[in-house]
UniProtKB/TrEMBL annotation, chains A, B:
It comes from the Bacteria. Residues 235-378 form the Peptidase M20 dimerisation domain. This is Putative peptidase M20 family protein. The keyword Calcium does not apply. The keyword Metal-binding applies. One of its GO terms (molecular function) is metal ion binding.
């Protein structure tokens, strides 16, 4: 069934499509091995793990895939990789890769997170399990397999490629602006019609999504304790002393309490909503359309919740999902965190938070407002550390990148929703914002799950005809490149 | 120097004191070995470690020390031990032991926490390092050594003894009321003139304390998450969802925020101060006197802080220390707690808190007020778990227990402060409250530190003449028993 699909006349534009598909099938085992090898080498910026080895590996992956040049771009953090492939085509396409992965705790996994074990996933097919499988090594490896297959079939690519791959996406792209500021990188990107990140967007029923942008994300930590004021002890001390000594955990609670309203979710930072653009009628229309592809009960079950915020209906909750900037607590840690209690007064309290930003908010604006808000309320003993982040991105529906996606989905009969934006984040703003001002999007037909969670997976062989496994996902990238070339020529 | 002190005419009342002191010295190595063996077997109720072995061991320690009967008293939690020693004396004294110890993390210790290593402590002398060394196995072992030495010297004890030893002191004596409710135990205790717990109360300069009671302590945890409401996810999920799904960490912050005033320390639970008795003039006098023995700079340095609450002066901070009931955050834990950030919406948030209660507050009152306070504000999704606790205790200055301490200190020239109460807690209320209504106190001349912290220690051989090592501490218990017998006869 899978092979039939891959051979189907999905995109009439792709020349010698059968030959390329046969090449994809022939190199399949090699591609799976390459994905497993890549999963075995995690780069985790937060833990300073796999750096700089991950960048060297990424560079080699690009060269192996046919990029004519690839080089390491040093930053103040984890290095990036910049590579180009000149096919002599009139159109140049930008590609963004992240080669880092999220932290993981092997104890929470059913198979070793770095093994990339192939396991039958009931009702879905054969999947590869491992950290980075879907976020983002699986889709990226499928893209590399696509350009290899075109070349191995004796063809030139229909577009030239400019690849930038960063190793700090999971720590909110702390130094990515330094990469695109390198004159050579910036000049190469400026020649592209836009930049896309390979992704796995299919639902279990085979439907897909086109996203017209993404929220921005800014991660920061608030710390109070002996290190920020001599009101607090430097280590945990006996709790009887709270009668005469301030507790940094209370101070943290008081500071946090000012950041959202009493409802526990509406941001209350001074001036927070000033630059938030409301949804347009077209965006609301897209949301209502998209809701039909994702039944509410299915969404709630997947998220493990029974109710949306304020007991709102599904459409309202979706409008909120795509339109609202958030102030989220990722984690709290202070004093004793084991089972039961322990009579200590903590020497330190930390809250890990993140903003999700929507157009036309910027990272600098959000951080500035947070600091002013805390300063105005006298929280000078609350230390703010911004560990990374970037603003939102937004791309027009009639850009080449999006037109090519629509056409591909329409011609192959993939049901899809157009989302006004992704409620998650990726640093498209680096391309989308000044000075490049390029379209930026996500694209990929394939399926996976468990990003940022245990048992992350990416579908290799699908048992559902409408859902793409590795080979079909690879062919979708082949078709996309040809469709982009044709749309750009219009 | 140490031996000279031990042989000094510290308490003229003790018959054949030199002979007993010689016995103490002769059994010294045995006592140290017994203490090390006891440290090697930790009972930690919070971790269900060393139960019920710890109770069996405690029972055997009592029998070895000359108690004629000792038996395990089962409870719904960790079992207790009840033992009696009938010396045919007119006076019976109650002894309270805790045989459990605080949790520990070996990585934070300079020597293995269960080794009981003997290490020279600069400026203090030879000390034994181990979990439970001072809290409370060291002082308790010295007491057992004292009664052994009297008997080994061919004498009967000057008082009969009733011992109750519990294994859940560090989890706020969760089931201790069940122990004293056992008719045989209650009847035995009812015959005592009061109950004391052996302790190590000497400062570095040799000064000591008499405490006329202690605050109560109630430990509880607040939990919010998928387990308490279907508004929240059951596990950590991708943080982009906070735009449409409630975050239990915010809800916890909102609930916590109502528990103390904006100053970050004054309890704000409805009706909290209703039964709080203000300090009496005598209590204030005692605090001012006691302050002279503990210079402010020394206290601040030991606690690692530069300022008291509200920048108060020392005496005010001490009055607060002894008189104010507190609502303390022991710990916070939610979502991601590792380095940096992680884009999750937590499925669970927990705050670990504790009350310290002063007369005439009770545990039932405090817990009832907390629950009413949260219910009134609609926090029905915040789960309150009371993991243990008890009310405050208070003993008159003219009770036999306290008179005997004063006389002993006066006669041996030990400088001492009388504290209106201990700002820390011990479950004396079990004896002090109804139905027993007995005096309850702490007594012991020896020195140690690091309770509830790494590198807990207890002094074995003191390099400072005024500070008691193990032998002198043991002799102080010998003298105390004879002094109690004499005071009771008055």
């Amino acid at each position: 069934m899978a092979l039939v699909l891959a051979a189907a006349p999905a995109a009439a534009e792709t020349p010698e499509r059968d030959k390329i598909a046969a090449t994809v099938a022939a190199q399949r085992d090699t591609t799976i091995k390459a994905l497993r090898d890549w999963i075995a080498l995690p780069t985790i910026a937060a833990e300073k793990r796999g750096t700089p080895e991950g960048a060297e590996y990424m560079k080699q992956l690009a060269l192996d895939a046919g990029f004519q040049q690839a080089r390491i771009i040093p930053t103040d953090g984890v290095p990036a990789v910049f590579a180009t492939l000149d096919a002599g085509a009139p159109t140049t396409l930008g590609i963004y890769f992240m080669y880092d992965v999220k932290q993981f705790d092997p104890a929470e996994w059913d198979s070793p997170p770095l093994e990339g074990r192939l396991v039958e996933r009931p009702g879905e097919g054969l999947a590869i399990y491992g950290r980075g499988a879907v976020n983002q090594k699986g889709p990226e490896m499928a893209f590399l397999a696509a350009i290899k297959a075109i070349q191995a079939s004796g063809r030139k690519l229909p577009v030239n490629l400019v690849l930038v791959a960063e190793g700090e996406e999971e720590v909110a792209s702390t130094h990515f602006d330094q990469v695109v500021a390198v004159p050579e990188v910036q000049a190469a990107l400026a020649k592209t019609i836009g930049v896309f990140i390979p992704s796995a967007a299919q639902s279990k029923d085979g439907s897909a999504n086109i996203t017209l942008g993404a929220k921005g994300a800014v991660e920061f930590q608030l710390v109070v304790g002996g290190e920020t004021s001599d009101k607090y002890p430097k280590t945990d001390i006996h709790s009887s002393n709270h009668a005469r000594i301030e507790n940094p955990a209370w101070r943290l609670v008081k500071a946090l309490d000012t950041l959202v309203a009493d409802d526990g979710h509406t941001p209350a930072i001074d001036g927070w909503f000033e630059n938030v653009r409301p949804l347009t009628p077209r965006q609301k229309e897209l949301i209502a359309e998209g809701a039909k592809l994702n039944p509410e009960a299915q969404e709630k079950a997947a998220l493990g919740i029974g109710r949306w915020i304020d007991d709102e209906d599904y459409i309202t909750s979706l409008e909120r999902f795509y339109s609202q900037p958030t102030v989220n607590i990722q984690g709290l840690v202070a004093g004793y965190t084991g089972p039961g209690g322990k009579t200590v007064l903590p020497g330190r309290a930390e809250a890990k938070l993140e903003f999700r930003l929507v157009p036309a908010m910027t990272k600098a604006e959000a951080v500035g407002k947070l600091k002013a808000h805390l300063a105005k309320r006298g929280f000078d003993d609350v230390q703010v550390t911004v560990s990374g982040g970037y603003g939102p991105n937004e791309t027009e529906e009639d850009s080449v990148l999006i037109r090519a996606q629509k056409r591909l989905f329409d011609e192959t009969g993939i049901p899809y929703a157009i989302r006004p934006r992704n409620a998650g984040s990726w640093p498209g703003v680096i391309f989308n914002g000044p000075p490049l001002n390029l379209p930026a999007s996500q694209f990929g037909l394939s399926r996976g799950g468990g990003a940022h969670a245990p048992n992350e997976w990416f579908l290799i062989e699908s048992s559902e005809p409408k859902v793409y496994g590795l080979d079909q996902a690879t062919m979708a990238y082949v078709d996309y490149l040809y469709t982009v070339a044709e749309e750009a020529a219009k």
